[in-house]
Give the backbone structure.
Amino acid sequence: MRKRSGYRWFVVAVFFLFMLLHQTDRLMIGSMQVPIMGEFRISDSQWGLVNTGALVVATLLYPVWGYLYDRYARVKFLALASLIWGATTWISSLVRSFPAFVGARASTGIDDSSYPGLYSLVADYFGPSLRGRVYGLLQVAQPLGYLAGMVLALMVAPMIGGWRSVFYITGSLGLVIAVLIFFGVKEMPRGQAEPEFEGIQEYGQFRFSWAEAKQAVQKRSMWFVFAQGFAGVFPWNVITFFFFGYLIRERGYDNNSVLFTMAPVILVLALGYFVGGAIGDWLFKRNLNGRIITSSVGVILGAIFLFLAIQTPVENRTQFFVLMLVTAMFMPFSSPNVIATIFDVTTPEVRSTTQAVEYFVENSGAALAPLLAGIVADATNLKTAILWICISTWLLCFVIYLGALFFIPKDIHTLRGEMQRRADLERAKARAG
């Protein structure tokens, strides 16, 4: 048992490395905008096409990846995703025409939708009481990857021959991680970590079924999860695409000021994932609505402190910085708790599919957010666009979470009852055999 416990943390370390390097590869292109646009001589709208292509491909493929993960061995498909990441990044560095580059970057979206299998596999290594903090720990890799991508793009690329050379590096790392996952990570039986199956050494495999998947997405609690997923990504995408421009254009920051302001904010953001997941686990042990309560607190405090930060006078940079640090702590509280909640109410054999549907809905919102922000900013200014979209959608998420409180406990009890029924059946088979 101790060996298994130690091994599962090795798996977490491998997946953390996968997410860190994959997010670095995926996000650093934003910091390479100027040299890439200069080489291909393209406009802002053409640059937008480069990034939209990968988003569209990832959105369309979420249900496909979800089904494959639930139907077949997840480890092999995770290794395949890492292999595709490496190959498509290499292709992006090799092409010389703009149409080919657009196609190559769009192909990188294939592996961007591969995370449901990772989270599903982790759920079979860790029981419900630990999942929030484990998911929070894994998601720390996302903002750290963003920071690493900035360093590679702005500091390393000019020293080693430009943006193509950096893509060679991150693409090669994708191939290395593919080998590490394929040979180093073991597939776990679906449902292995459910508390009802403790002490059962062998049991029949849970098989994917369309009926079970349909039942999962039709649960009342999942309706609220999907709704908050659609609305909840608006603030993230608005801040990602417009906040740096807001600091420079409307608060008078230069590049160094932006870096020294945002780097600590991103580090606190990374910490917020783990803190939110840990608090969610702690409350969940005491109240089945604990994860949703944590998420609700996160969105409402995030909205309050972002409002206070944006309203801070331009000349008061210290106050603005402190308020952004506090905002960054609460912003990610929802993310690990939403993932854990999905697995709290769905059966093991359809978890990847259910989460993939949730990501499909999220990405639909993500595609709308930058366009809406741009329209509002053109009509008013960036401050108004950021405040109006972020505050309104976070308040909407808060209302949606309040609705979820009425259905989450019932769906959790339903799942636990189903797991107990299956465990009792397996024990009866063992006694009869």
About this structure: The domain at 210-433 is CATH 1.20.1250.20 (Growth Hormone; Chain: A;). The chain has two domains: 1-188, 210-433. The CA atoms of residues 200 and 427 lie 7 Å apart. The mean pLDDT is 90.
